[in-house]
Write a structure and sequence with these properties.
about 190 residues, 6 helices, elongated
Length: about 190
């Protein structure tokens, strides 16, 4: 499943990529330096994915899906937990025992979140919006991922309007930091 198309196709493709990154991390020996590089890629992809959902998906769910506010609030709470785990993981070396613990907890949290989105949120969204609106959301999500931060920022607001104002600047700063540090965030 590739990127492009409507919001459900786009976000589902992200989910498969995240699952593949977890598998790649787990396949490396504990002391292998690639585990840190893969964790950085995982972090960047999770942050970009989350920011795009927070900017475009969840506001739409709130406004167009029955009981959407409660559903969006639950998803935002899940994001906050994942982002804090990513922050805790950020400076750990792959050989640190906490590294494996956090990756395992992160994998469980992300898998649970993915199941909820794909089995509950996405079908309800598809039933609530016309295909053209789903396509438009897909374009907005792709654009948001391009400008989104690549590092966890648990204190960054995750709802409009504050997130729409702050995300582009934080994203730019993260990409400059990645460039200067040599941090790899793309596969």
């Amino acid at each position: 499943m590739g990127h492009g198309g409507n919001v459900i196709t786009e976000l589902t493709a992200d989910h498969r990529e995240l699952e593949a990154l977890f598998t790649q991390i787990e396949a490396q020996p504990v002391d292998h330096p690639q585990r840190r590089e893969l964790a950085d890629r995982l972090t960047a992809e999770l942050v970009r994915h989350s920011v795009a959902e927070e900017l475009h998906l969840y506001p739409t769910v709130r406004n167009h899906v029955s009981d959407g506010a409660a559903l969006a609030d639950k998803e935002l709470a899940d994001h906050a937990k994942v982002e804090q785990m990513l922050k805790d993981l950020e400076d750990l070396h792959a050989v640190d025992p906490q590294f494996n613990d956090i990756v395992a907890k992160l994998k469980f949290a992300v898998a649970s979140h993915v199941r909820e989105e794909e089995h509950e949120l996405f079908p309800r969204l598809a039933a609530s919006l016309p295909p053209a609106k789903l396509d438009e959301l897909g374009r907005l999500v792709r654009r948001a991922k391009e400008m989104a931060p690549t590092r966890p920022h648990p204190s960054l607001p995750n709802t409009p309007p504050a997130n729409k104002l702050l995300v582009p600047g934080v994203g730019l700063v993260d990409r400059v930091r990645d460039l200067l540090s040599g941090r790899t965030t793309k596969g």
